[in-house]
TrEMBL record:
GO biological processes: fatty acid beta-oxidation using acyl-CoA dehydrogenase
Keyword Ribonucleoprotein set for record: no
GO molecular function: acyl-CoA dehydrogenase activity
KW Flavoprotein (keyword) present: yes
Entry keywords, A to Z: Flavoprotein, Oxidoreductase
Protein name: Acyl-CoA dehydrogenase-like protein
Organism phylogeny: Bacteria, Bacillati, Actinomycetota, Actinomycetes, Geodermatophilales
């Protein structure tokens, strides 16, 4: 996304930025959720940072705009290509 902004400019790189803003936090939540599952009850206990990591990552998904908005930007771009 950063390279696209440098090469294409901000307007043309918008779809790449939306892809990153949607995909990275979603994937991070999935990975942390799997780690919590692996650790069982310890994964959500006070002795593990995983529950706090999940809460922070999930909050980030809202702070950067709802996922659906980013998915819509990418979807619109894909439909325009075909």
């Amino acid at each position: 996304a950063a390279k696209a902004m440098d090469v294409l400019g901000n307007k043309e790189a918008r779809v790449w930025v939306s892809m990153v803003k949607a995909m990275v936090p979603e994937k991070a939540c999935q990975i942390i959720d799997q780690a919590i599952q692996i650790h069982g009850a310890t994964g959500i206990s006070q002795w593990s940072p995983l529950s706090e990591m999940y809460a922070s990552t999930r909050t980030l998904r809202f702070a950067d705009g709802p996922d659906e908005v980013h998915h819509m930007v990418v979807g619109r771009h894909e439909l325009a290509q075909h």
